Structures are given as structure tokens and as C-alpha cells.
Amino acid sequence: MAITIAAQLVTSFIAAAAFGIIFNAPKESLIKCGLVGMIGWIVYFMLAFYGVDEVVATVSAAFIIAVISQVYAKLYKTPVIIFTVAGIIPLVPGGIAYNAMRNFVTNDYNMAINLAAKAFMISGAIAMGIILSEVINQLIRQSKLNSKA
Amino acid sequence: MEQFLEEQYDIMDVSLLAGKIMLESGAETYRVEDTMMRMAAAYGIKESHSYVTPTGIMFSIETEEPTKTKLIRISVRTTDLKKVAMVNSTSRRITNGELTVSQAYRELKEIHTSDVTFPLKLRIAAASIASGCFLIMFQGSWIDFISAMVAGGLGFMSVVYFERLIPIKFFSEFIAALIVGILSFLFVHTGLGMHLDRIIIGSVMPLVPGLLITNAVRDLMAGHLLSGLAKGAEAFLTAFAIGSGIAVVLTFL
Can you tell me where the transmembrane regions are (chain B) (predicted)? Predict the structure, then answer.
């Protein structure tokens, strides 16, 4: 188990940093991209491993990714999108979408629709996680403004 | 008076150039609008309005004279987060009052023409390493690592290459997914790879429209319904292109 987790940590870090390169993120932010991706993925992985529903696991992971990204964006005065993108990519339900497509091709429409609906739910969960963190961000900003006034 | 009028046009040009660079490099719509209005405000334009969609920017400033409005068209959209960050820091310096209008224009022009992207070889290498890593993350076995790397790298390379050859995004993504599928099949067929499903899933990951998905959500939430839906549609088209490319291969299995 420890080896599996270590492998997941290392690969998710490298994958997220590599995505930073593909999207041409600034050099100095690549390590941070990797960290965001790694933390988000390990949250998802552990939750899914302990039997939490995939949708819930995705919401939690996306939320944590977005929160860390916003903290980084504030700290380093960089657009938040640079960190969010690299972290979100691993959560995209590629495997489920693939299986859905596979069932469509083999004319097993019942299974295909099932899987497609699941992929859709997970995409929605990613959006939900980002939105939640945005809400919290706005709340903090507003409370800051209020305390200044 | 004449000079004052000219300066207002300069301010418009600076804001528009900043907006253009950001939008072309893949920034969120609300960030583009926000940056343009902040810049104009920093140069003393009290009221400005911007309307940004993924394909064009309208910007108008209001002063004592009649309202001035300009429209620019955005035809190329790439992903270049470094430029977004660079324009962001320039705009920060403008709002701090560190740059004059002409200095800002020169700096933005430099950002616009500069090529700050990572070399293509490095990006292809990154795509192939990412594919291998995704394979492991999606419970693949290490035996397939090399196969996923090769398929993913070549897939990303072909999307870049075909996009130059035929500037239709859907087509180049379809072909890239097709190539990924064929390569993965060949690897499994020759015994170099073990699990076709895992190799394909890992290798198509560099093609996934991650930036579009996040931008679409953030734009929708910021109230930019038009841009959000447009980006969502673009992401969906990309996903559909990848899906059909893979589906073609699966049909012949």
C-alpha cells in the first residue's frame, strides 16, 4: 500500500508539472503546479480507495485544488488559472468516458448511457468544487472589505 | 486639447492590446475585462466599458467628449499561460503608477511579439511523460509505461502538426486520437503492451481540454454566460473529437 501511494504521489506530481509545460506556465510556477496536482490527486485517490463515492471524492479534490490555487495566486501574485488547470486535469473522467465510448461502439447502449451519465456527473462535480472555493474566496474578500470600512 | 484627445486613444490602445494578448493566450473572460478597466482607470479614465467574448473585444471609454469605442477581432486562440502572467504583472505595475502610457504600450508590444513558449520538443517530451504518469495514476501497470509514453507523445505531436497543416481544431484532434488508438493497438498486438484500455486512457490525457473546462466554469460563475457557454461548447467538441477518434479504432477490434 505504501508503495502504491508513493507511486501515485510521484506520478501525479510529475504529470501535473508536465501539464504546466504543455500549457506553457511560467517556469517558476511549475513546481507549484506539480504540488497542487499531487495534493488534489492524493485526496481523490485516498477517498476513492476507502470507498467514498467518486462524485463526492471529485468534489472534495476539486475544492482543495481550487483553494490551494487561490492561496498560491495571492502569495505569488499570479493568475489563479495557472495552478487550477494543472490540478484539475487528473480528475477529468477520461477512463469512464472511454468505457462509455467503448460501449457505444459495441452497441451496448444501456451500459454506455449509464457510464456517460456518470462521466457527466463527475464533470459537474469538478465544476461544483471550483464554485465552492470561489464562494469561500468571495466571502473572505467581502469580510476583508467590511473590516476595512 | 488635441494632445489630450490623442492620449485617450493611446490609453484605449494600451488596454485593448493587453486584452488581446490575454484573450489569445487563454485567460478567463472576466480577468480580461477586469484588467482592461483597471488599466483605463489607472490612467484617469473614470468610466470605461468592456465587452469580451472569446472571439472579439469591444471597449469604450467615456469622457467629456463623445464616447470612443473600438472593436478588435480575436482569431487565434492558443494556450500560453506565461503571457497571461506577464500581462498581469504589467497591469499591476500600471495600477501602481509605475508606467507611463507609452512605456506600457512598448512593454505590451514586446510581450505580444515575444515567443516565450517552451520549445516544442520539450512540450512533446512533457506530454509523453505525463501520459506515462497518467497510466500509473489510472491503475495501469508499469509494463505499459513505455507504450503509453510513445503513444501519448506522438499523439500530442500530431495534434500540433496537423493543426499547422489544416487549421481545423476538430480534425487535428480527431486524427491525433486516431493515431493514439492505432499505436496503442499495435503495441498490444506486438506484445509490447498489455492492457489496451489503460494505454489509450493514459495517452489521450494530453489532448484533454482542461483549460477550457476550468475557464468555462469560472466564466459562467462570473456571469459571463456567453463566453462560458462558448468555451463549454469548444471543450465538448474537443472531447467529442477525441472520443470519435478512439471509437473508430475500437470498431475495428
Answer: 145-162, 174-193, 229-252
Q: What is the ipTM of this complex?
A: 0.86
For residue range B53-108, list pLDDT tens digits in order: 888 999 998 877 778 888 999 888 888 889 999 999 999 888 888 888 888 888 88
SS3 A77: coil
Which residues from chain A sit within 8 angstroms of residue B176, using beta carbons? none
For β-strands B56-62 and B47-53, DSSP reports them as: antiparallel
Residue A18 contacts B, CB cutoff 8 Å? yes
- Phi and psi at residue B58, to the nearest 5°: -115, 135
Q: Do B183 and B99 fall into the same domain?
A: no
Question: Testing the interface with B: which of A28, A58, A81 to mutate, by most B Cβ within 10 A?
Answer: A81
Give the cell for residue B197.
Answer: 484500455
Render pLDDT for B191-219 as a digit per residue (tens, 0 to 9).
888 888 889 988 988 888 878 888 888 88
What is the DSSP code (8-state) at residue A92? S
Domain count, chain A: 1
Cell of B144: 505499459
Boundaries of domain holding B16: 2-113
User: Which of these, B4, B23, B22, B17, lies nearest to B107 by C-alpha position?
Assistant: B17
Buried b (16+ CB within 10 A) or exposed e, B10-33: bbbbbbbbbbbbbbbbbbbbbbbb
- Whether residues B128 and B80 share a domain: the answer is no
Q: Nearest CB to B82: which of A19, A24, A104?
A: A24
* Range of the structural domain that residue A74 is part of: 2-148
Domain count, chain B: 2
Phi, psi of B73 (to 5 degrees): -100, 140
Domain edge (last residue) among B113, B141, B165: B113
